[in-house]
Every structure is written in structure tokens, then in C-alpha cells.
Design goal:
By secondary structure, this protein is an all-alpha fold. 53% of the residues lie in helices and 0% in strands. It has a domain at 35-150: Cytochrome c-like domain (Cytochrome Bc1 Complex, Chain D, domain 2, Orthogonal Bundle), CATH 1.10.760.
């Protein structure tokens, strides 16, 4: 009797899994739904927070100089996906999945400085965010983290727009 019940439950779980899997797609074209975005965002925040407990060196003391250096590095390392403003992804960033983040958004800015450092250094697996830990020294990664913190304060008018794709009405 137990095997019969376990078999029925197992069959039900298998049918449910097949039904859910048949609705999934690997395409990066459609925008993710609210539930998917919420769940992925919460999971990402949790995993990044858990990971920053080790391997994050203390930040340099001169934050202002680091921010200036970070602005230069941002243009060469990050703008290809996030756009020069950090707010408007380029075509490359807009069509990857998950989309390149608006770094001035409240979600992106809700990470601590150490978490931003960790993300830049280690990247985010299964996303377009590369790891810079093998190509940039920790000081440069801190410079980028400091600069990312300034993005919400900069007005859109102050941000450079050179190189950004701007759609025009026909």
C-alpha cells in the first residue's frame, strides 16, 4: 500500500515538473515576469550577502581619489553593458539575460560597499556580470565600487551620453 501511495505521489510530482518545465524557455528575448524578477533578486541579494563574509579587503582611505579613478575605469570596463551613465544599458546589456542593471536604481544601491566590491571582483554566475578579480587589482575594484555609489547623485544631464544607443522616432 505504501509503495502505491509513493508511486502516485511520485507520478504526480513528475507530471507537475514536466508541466512547469514545458512552460520554461531558454530565450532571453521576453522580459521576465514580476515573480521571477522578485525571486531572483532576493536570491541574488542573499547569496551576495552570504559571500561577502570573507575575501573582501578593507577599502582604501582616500575615497574621493578612488571615485575619480573609478569613473575612468567605469568607462573602459563597465560602460560596454551598463552604458556610460550606468543607468541605461547599451544594446549588449539590454539584450542579455538577466539585463544589465541600472546601477543608480534603489535595488543596485541597496548593496553595501563590501557587497558591491564582491560583485565586481567575483561577478555573478549565470548572468552577464563578469568577474574582474583576475584582471584588476583590489584597489581598482574598490575605485569602481566607490564610483558606482555616486551614480544616483548625478543628474541625468550631468551624465555623458556619447556612445549610447538612442532610439529616434521614425
Amino acid at each position: 500500500m505504501r509503495f502505491a501511495i509513493a508511486g502516485v505521489i511520485g507520478a504526480f510530482v513528475l507530471v507537475a515538473a514536466i508541466a512547469v518545465a514545458s512552460r520554461l524557455t531558454l530565450s532571453a528575448l521576453p522580459e521576465p515576469g514580476q515573480r521571477e524578477t522578485f525571486l531572483v533578486s532576493k536570491a541574488k541579494h542573499y547569496l551576495v550577502q552570504r559571500s561577502t563574509g570573507h575575501g573582501v579587503p578593507p577599502p582604501p582611505s582616500d575615497r574621493q581619489a578612488g571615485t575619480k579613478e573609478g569613473e575612468k575605469l567605469f568607462g573602459t570596463e563597465c560602460a560596454a553593458c551598463h552604458g556610460l551613465s550606468g543607468r541605461n544599458p547599451t544594446d549588449a546589456g539590454r539584450w542579455m539575460y538577466p539585463r544589465a542593471a541600472n546601477l543608480a536604481s534603489s535595488d543596485a544601491q541597496s548593496y553595501s560597499d563590501q557587497e558591491v566590491f564582491w560583485i565586481i571582483k567575483n561577478g555573478i554566475r549565470f548572468s552577464g556580470m563578469p568577474a574582474f578579480g583576475r584582471v584588476e587589482p583590489d584597489e581598482h575594484i574598490w575605485d569602481l565600487a566607490f564610483y558606482v555609489r555616486t551614480l544616483p547623485k548625478a543628474s541625468a544631464a550631468e551624465q555623458p551620453t556619447q556612445g549610447l544607443h538612442v532610439e529616434q522616432a521614425p
